[in-house]
Design a protein that fits this description.
single chain; about 500 residues; alpha/beta; Alkaline Phosphatase, subunit A; 8-stranded mixed β-sheet; about 15% strand
Length: about 500
């Protein structure tokens, strides 16, 4: 139990989470095009983690990792699959509630069933466009206009049926188009507005944990028109940085799939690549300006000196790198994520520093629990980001249909990838080649290092229910599963 004196020392915690934002897509990260003044300010005042990654780069497993403090394998989710119950009892919000926090989430949850609070006192929900819950007209009415608070609110505001897909663009493609309605009606603005309203209505006697969870910059790329114009103007003055390419890229696949808007291949048309970049960057700057509204609200309610702010994304976006879009595969654009922690010196310290450890979403829960003084009742895979620990390596994985299911080991200086369906391996020296333009798997000078990283992966997968390891060797061709047997049964407390 937390006593009154402990509670006085507990900071408020504001967790700002975005969806599908690349780790390099900030001015502070050195991006030549993306404008993020408020995020840059947070990074300059706090601790910035340039080597932060996500271990399972799609929405559902990444969020399971964040909310449990476990690896994807121990949380039972190693790929994307909807409509699987979330039965995790000992979650990030539940632990903070036990520590005396009032807890609220505004925006995206992406859990099952819809409106599962996973330990929050209350949720104001906007999950975006979820195909799995729009399979039939009856489900659409019940799940999207009733369960999703933003969709219900938007319909009430307009008085007619309107939808986030009215632009005609999909939530997993590369097509971009400005938001067709008033800027105040955009879901990014709604999440900000409802979060600020919570700051007004909170109980001032107890600390709060507020998760502000934006759907963007995940597609559809539909920021208000002014943000599109910002990047169109920039592109007219000087071309936007082109996507990264490498000596290992699959040009045949690109030619075969580059005109399919819902594939993983980037568009064949270079003009559409540029429009995709403009739409994606527009969504990021729109979010950045809305974060500015949040920061002003903290100042208005005199909460700046009592609040720790954590900014993170669930995964990245390839955005044309290596002729690919979307996520799931273990390349930098997909798995690298922004991560910033800032707040009062008494709780965060090390302001204006860069922490080069390999950090991951599993580290958010132990960090927040440590800030709150809450002790874990079970082993955690994550680490407290505010303690000077060093992770030797991180194991990640993602199940994908076909040949793209992959396992990877990443360190501060390199990355080893094993594709479980084909047995193909890749190795990147991230110190010399941070954008993964050269696959060095066959180079003699790296063979000892590759063998060591392969041995790390064997240790991680030994005893896996898929049978990825036998007699101390990786086994190719085993049938993968996005959801393991422990996903719905292991974490009730």
């Amino acid at each position: 139990m937390t006593n009154d004196s402990d509670r006085q020392r507990q900071p408020n915690i504001l967790l700002i989470m975005v969806d599908e934002m690349r780790g390099d897509a900030m001015g502070y990260a050195g991006h030549p095009d993306v404008k993020t003044p408020h995020l840059d300010s947070l990074a300059a005042r706090g601790i910035y983690y340039p080597n932060a990654v996500t271990a399972c780069p799609t929405c559902v497993p990444a969020r399971a990792i964040l909310h449990t403090g476990l690896s994807g394998r121990n949380a039972g989710r190693v790929g994307y699959q909807d409509r699987v119950d979330w039965n995790y009892g000992d979650t990030l919000a539940a632990g903070l509630g036990e520590a005396g926090y009032q807890t609220r989430c505004v925006g995206k949850m992406h859990v099952h069933p819809l409106r599962n609070r996973i330990g929050f006192d209350d949720v104001e929900l906007h999950d975006g466009f979820l195909h799995a819950y729009r399979a039939a007209s009856r489900q659409y009415v019940e799940n999207q206009l009733v369960a999703d608070d933003y969709n219900y609110w938007l319909k009430m505001q307009r008085g007619i049926h309107v939808d986030v897909t009215d632009t005609g663009i999909d939530c997993n493609g590369y097509v971009a188009h400005p938001w067709p309605y008033e800027e105040a009606l955009h879901p990014t603005n709604w999440v900000t507005e409802r979060s600020i309203d919570y700051l007004r209505r909170r109980d001032p006697r107890d600390p709060f944990f507020l998760m502000v969870s934006y759907v963007r910059p995940h597609a559809p790329y539909d920021a208000p028109a002014s943000y599109f114009e910002l990047y169109r103007d920039l592109d007219r003055r000087r071309p936007l940085r082109p996507p990264f390419t490498g000596d290992w890229n699959d040009h045949e696949r690109h030619e075969r799939e580059g005109r399919l808007h819902n594939s993983m291949s980037s568009p064949l048309d270079p003009d559409q690549v540029r429009q995709m970049q403009i739409g994606y960057y527009a969504c990021i700057t729109h979010i950045d300006h809305q974060i500015g509204r949040l920061l002003m609200a903290l100042h208005h309610y005199d909460l700046e000196e009592d609040t720790v702010i954590i900014f993170v994304s669930d995964h990245g976006e390839l955005l044309g790198d290596h002729l690919l879009i979307r996520k799931t595969v273990p390349y930098r654009g997909s798995i690298s994520i922004p991560l910033i922690v800032t707040g009062p010196d008494a709780h965060v310290g090390r302001a204006g520093t860069v922490d080069h450890r390999v950090a991951e979403l599993r580290d958010i829960l132990p960090t927040c629990w440590a800030l709150a003084g809450h002790e874990a009742r079970r082993p955690l895979d994550g680490e407290n980001l505010l303690e000077p620990t060093t992770r030797e390596y991180l194991h990640g994985e993602h199940v994908v249909d076909g040949k793209d299911s992959a396992q990877f080991i990443v360190t501060e200086r390199d990355k080893y990838i094993w594709f479980s369906g084909s047995g193909r391996e890749q190795y990147f020296d991230l110190t010399l080649d941070p954008n993964e333009t050269h696959d060095a798997i066959a180079e003699t000078r790296y063979q000892e290092r590759i063998a060591g990283l392969r041995a790390c992966l064997v240790r991680e997968l030994d005893g896996s229910e898929e049978g990825y390891v036998a007699d101390g060797q990786l086994v190719t061709g085993r049938r993968p599963s996005a959801v393991l047997s422990n996903a719905t049964a292991s974490l009730r407390t």
